[in-house]
Amino acid sequence: MIWSLQILRFVAALMVVYSHSVKIAIEVTRSNGLLPLSVQMVGRAGVDIFFVISGVIISRVSIGLSWQEFAWRRLRRVVPIYFVACIPTVVIAAKDGFGWRDVLATFLLWPATDVMTAPLLTVAWTLCFETLFYAAATLVLWNRNALYVLLGLFIGAMLLRPMGPVFQFLGNPIILEFLLGVAIARLPEWRSARWAIVVGAGMIVLAGPIGFATSGDPIDYLVGVGVGPRLLIYGIPAALIVYGTMQIKAGPSFWTAQGDASYSLYLTHILILLTLLQFWLAFPIAPDLIIILSTLACVLFGWAVHTRVEKPLLNALRGQREKTLRPA
């Protein structure tokens, strides 16, 4: 366990929640508060930090595991609480109905058919790429030669992206952020590289004011609209931040516990923000207070879901099943 990365996971989730809270404040008050919007929206880069961290973690935790054991651990970690988080969204969407594309995108995290379709729980667009990465890692653990096949398929899909959603998804340049994480995991320790955190953070923060910050919606991200510039503006700085953070010695603490809860926070925060939106519309307050209170409410609710739902689910799925997958 790289404890410092656990803390960074919480920071990354908090960045995403904060940027979405700003949008709620704007919808209620038509104002984003005191800070420039161009600075506030850099919270989007939390996703890029997540992707790089995933590359590091998967590269490290897969060592010594069979492909079955790895696949089960990823499935157990990602899917159960995701399905729980989907329940309110699916119930709401069912009133108007949804089609087979929505089912594939939401329950199998496969968004690419004849039309690119985001999951009903929109923040799960990131899980579509996470799942793709886990599947690739599983294949490589099964057969090391699969790595070359997968790299060839990725390059081919990138070249064929104009041909439609499947190639747009499989050849999405954002996948390179996972590969950055894999590369970072193999770099030697360099304690002095903690400066990379400041450099990376500075690059992300300055991207907005100088007009380089990217924007889009889940469909844009899945299709890959503007992802090339995003790699330069957010991806490389995210890699610097992750590598610099890895040089910090840390142990279990309140902040690493928040990192444990970051997945629940990420999955549930949209539901809380949409609920709070109705409250703030009825009882409007200053935009900065909306941002602060909304972000805090999301963190508290995410922690409650983590401790009351996610951890019990994980504990229930541990044990005998994992033992049966471990090779003798």
Automatic annotation (TrEMBL):
Instruction: Give the top-rank taxon of the lineage listed in the UniProt record for this protein.
Output: Bacteria
Tell me, what is an example of a GO biological process annotation in this record? polysaccharide biosynthetic process
Q: Which GO terms describe its cellular component?
A: membrane
Query: What's a Pfam family this protein contains?
Result: Acyl_transf_3
- Give the signal sequence positions: none
Q: Which GO terms describe its molecular function?
A: acyltransferase activity, transferring groups other than amino-acyl groups
What's this protein's name? Uncharacterized protein
Q: Which organism is it from?
A: Rhizobium loti
Biological classification of the source:
Bacteria, Pseudomonadati, Pseudomonadota, Alphaproteobacteria, Hyphomicrobiales
